[in-house]
Every structure is written in C-alpha cells, then in structure tokens.
C-alpha cells in the first residue's frame, strides 16, 4: 500500500533530534511521496538539505499569510519565483492564502496571495492554499482572479470547511486535502466534506508537526500518521483502505506531477 502525505513541515525544530527515526517510520507505514510546504522562503535551504537525503521528498516555496505583515515585499515575490525555478523538486507554490483568524491585515494578505497565484500561473505550478476563517472572501477572490487572469490549479490544504464551502472550491477546480482534524470526534462538518469530495479530487496530509490524528492526538504529528487520516477517510467513504490509498496517491502524483511509485507506474 502506497500513501502520499501532501503537506509536511519536517524542517521544524521538533524533528531535529530524531529525524532519521521519523523517516524510517514513514517508510515503514508505506508513505512513498511527501510534499514539504514552505512558510517562508528563508526555509528553502533547510528543506533542500532534507530532500537531498530523502529522495521521496518534494517541496513548495511561498509565504504563509500569517507572515505577510512582517515579511511580504516585492523582493520576496521575486525570491519565491527564483527559488521555484532553481530546483526541479519544487512542485508547488505555497503555502499561501488567507488567514483571518489571528490577523487583521486583509489588504496585505490579498496582495501577497495574488502575487503568489500569478507566480504559480507563470510557472505552471499548483498552489497550496491555507484558508482559515476566510472561505467566502477566498472563494470570491479566486473567482475574480480566474475571470481576470485565468485559472490556477491547486489544493485547499488541511481543509476544515463546511460542505457548502467545499463545493465552492470544487467548482473552482481545486483538490481538497484532509488532515488529522477529520478524525476528531466533533469534526462533523469536515467529515461530511470528506464524504462529498469526488474521488479524483481527494488528498490526504498530516500538516505535521501539528494536528496529530486520533489515536495520536496530543502528540507531535509526523508523516507516518497519515495512515490514520487515510483510515478515517476510507471509513467515511465506505471504501477499503487500499482503495483510498491508491486513489489519493494517484491524485497527488497527478496534481504535483510527482513520479508514480513503481506499483502504480507498472
């Protein structure tokens, strides 16, 4: 069984002391591809260094919306573009998007998001979108961007929206990725969304080290735990774990243009 964790942050300090063990555990769990998301371009060198040791790791480059107020400049946009062109292992722009839960700078966030959407479009890369407390303005902004500039492919990562909100982004052509939150007992709206996403638009992730799934909730999350996300989504959709793993792995490889595992390429 092959699994793809489409959103990790394994360069964070919490992994430094036992990264080799983390790698071995995800391999033992059947995780054959990972997409490492970037919260700011300054991380890029760290992520590259890890990927140099781990051939199954691919990555994105971008600026997280919560870092926009302090760090976004036109020079950062140029840096994102240049870094994305510098390494063939860059498979996406992000994570970028909108977060209105903790921040009150919508104009800055919209500007940084638009710039990163444009870079993704120019380089023909998908975007990894972070969206928190911003589904309606996000959907409207994307519709306007599409009308003015044309569509961009991508994924709504760590999705926590309602089924209605999910439909907005499906209509825009996005993939929807579910994290450990889908295993939480009270996450009924997320679970309903996981049931409604078409099979060719479904992805799974950990967003590690955050949001460890049940039964690991409260612990540091890591890529091996994506199997618990897969198990929950498979149960919600009334399919086997093997089928869910096959579908989400194919989807991830298609969206991010990852090399297919041997078992799927054959």
Task: Give a description of the structure.
The protein has helices spanning 19-28, 44-53, 68-71, 74-86, 106-123, 135-149, 163-171, 188-196, 226-237, 241-256, 262-265, and strands at residues 3-8, 31-36, 57-61, 90-99, 127-132, 154-156, 175-178, 202-204. The protein is of the alpha/beta class and 266 residues long. Strands 1-2-3-4-5-6-7-8 form an eight-stranded parallel sheet. Helix 8 links the parallel strand 7 and strand 8 (202-204). The longest helix has 18 residues, at 106-123. The two termini are 14 Å apart.
Question: What's a concise summary of this model?
Answer:
By secondary structure, the protein is α/β, with parallel strands linked by helices. It is 45% helix and 16% strand. Helix 4 runs parallel beside helix 5 (106-123) and helix 9 (226-237) crosses helix 10 (241-256).
List its salient traits.
alpha/beta, single chain, globular, eight-stranded parallel β-sheet, 16% strand
Strand tally: 8
Mean of residue pLDDT values:
96
Helix content: 40-55%
The ordered string of helix (H) and strand (E) elements is: EHEHEHHEHEHEHEHEHHH
Q: What structural class should be given to the helix and strand makeup? A: alpha/beta
Query: So what's the overall shape?
Result: globular
> Based on the structure, what is the oligomeric state of the protein chains?
single chain
Unreliable spans are none
User: Order of strands side by side in the largest beta sheet?
Assistant: 1-2-3-4-5-6-7-8
Instruction: Please give the radius of gyration in angstroms.
Output: 17 Å
How far the N terminus sits from the C terminus, by CA atoms, comes to: 14 Å
Q: How is the main sheet built?
A: 8 strands, parallel
């Amino acid at each position: 069984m092959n699994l793809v964790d489409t959103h990790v942050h394994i360069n964070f300090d919490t992994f430094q002391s036992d990264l080799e063990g983390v790698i071995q555990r995800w391999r033992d769990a059947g995780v054959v591809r990972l997409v490492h998301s970037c919260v700011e371009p300054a991380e890029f060198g760290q992520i590259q260094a890890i990927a140099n040791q781990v051939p199954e790791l691919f990555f994105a480059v971008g600026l997280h919306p919560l870092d926009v107020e302090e760090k976004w400049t036109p020079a950062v946009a140029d840096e994102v573009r240049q870094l994305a062109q510098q390494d063939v292992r860059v498979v996406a722009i992000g994570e970028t998007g909108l977060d209105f839960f903790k921040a009150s700078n919508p104009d800055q966030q919209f500007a940084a998001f638009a710039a990163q959407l444009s870079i993704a479009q120019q380089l023909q890369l998908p975007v990894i979108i972070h969206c928190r407390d911003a589904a309606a303005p996000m959907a409207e902004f994307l519709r306007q961007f599409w009308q003015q500039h044309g569509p961009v492919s991508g994924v709504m990562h760590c999705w926590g929206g309602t089924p209605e909100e999910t439909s907005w982004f499906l209509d825009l052509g996005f993939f929807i990725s579910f994290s450990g939150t889908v295993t939480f007992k009270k996450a009924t709206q997320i679970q309903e969304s996981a049931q409604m996403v078409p099979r060719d638009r479904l992805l799974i992730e950990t967003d590690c080290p955050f949001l460890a799934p049940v039964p690991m909730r409260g612990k540091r999350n890591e890529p091996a735990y994506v199997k618990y996300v897969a198990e929950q989504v498979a149960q919600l959709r009334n399919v086997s774990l093997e089928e869910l793993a096959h579908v989400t792995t194919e989807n991830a490889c298609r969206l991010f243009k990852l090399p297919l595992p041997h078992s799927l390429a054959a």
